[in-house]
TrEMBL record:
SUPFAM superfamilies reported for this sequence: EF-hand
Chain segments carrying region Disordered: 130-153
Start-end of Basic and acidic residues biased regions: 134-153
The gene coding this protein: Tppp3
GO MF, one example: tubulin binding
Pfam families in alphabetical order: p25-alpha (PF05517)
GO BP annotations listed: microtubule bundle formation; microtubule polymerization; positive regulation of protein polymerization
Subcellular location: Cytoplasm, Cytoskeleton
GO cellular component, one term: microtubule
Record key words, sorted: Cytoplasm, Cytoskeleton, Microtubule
InterPro entries the UniProt entry points to: EF-hand-dom_pair, TPP/p25
Name under which the protein is recorded: Tubulin polymerization-promoting protein family member 3
Length: 176
């Protein structure tokens, strides 16, 4: 069989795929969707000798009758089931080692993840050097936003209407 370091990396791959996409997963058990993803991402399924249907059948075969997940031991049994099918020209032990090498050390691949793009209007709206008037006061010299302090209106509690020319002169007129 394979070496202990390879088995450790195989178990690590099992745990990474087991928790993929599930925030409540502990990494001890893997569901059918993640098993199929592992087989696809690690190139166990090749479309010819091993298909997604084969992967689903093997998952159903190794899991318990009422269970919906497999543990690490059942995972190794599932790899043993798929190994001779994937590597037809090798012996059972060699095929198992080869399939373990395919899986060991791999992580789930995020395909189709949307990346944010700044083009056109978004680029203009996020360029702080183009802001004018009172809006440019919301940013410091480096272009970083000031947060709430940049949006807050400063309240004038002097008692005068804004832009009043003789503000602050009431006390001098009353004393006369």
């Amino acid at each position: 069989m394979a070496g202990s370091t390879e088995m450790a990396s195989l178990e690590e791959s099992f745990r990474k795929f087991a928790i993929y996409g599930d925030t409540k997963a502990t990494g001890q058990e893997m569901n059918g969707k993640n098993w199929a993803k592992l087989c696809k991402d690690c190139k166990v399924t090749d479309g010819k000798s091993v298909t997604s249907t084969d992967v689903d059948i093997v998952f159903s075969k190794v899991k318990g009758k009422t269970a919906r997940v497999i543990n690490y031991e059942e995972f190794k049994k599932a790899l043993e089931e798929l190994a001779p099918k994937r590597f037809k020209d090798k012996s059972k032990e060699e095929a198992y080692e080869a399939i373990c090498q395919l899986v060991a050390g791999k992580e789930p691949i995020n395909v189709g993840v949307t990346k944010a793009k700044t083009v056109g209007a978004v680029e203009r709206l996020t360029d702080t050097s183009k802001y004018t008037g009172s809006h440019k006061e919301r940013f410091d010299e480096s272009g970083k936003g000031k947060g709430k302090s940049g949006r807050e209106n400063i309240v004038d509690t002097s008692g005068y209407v804004s832009a009043y020319k003789n503000a602050g002169t009431y006390d001098t007129k009353v004393k006369k």
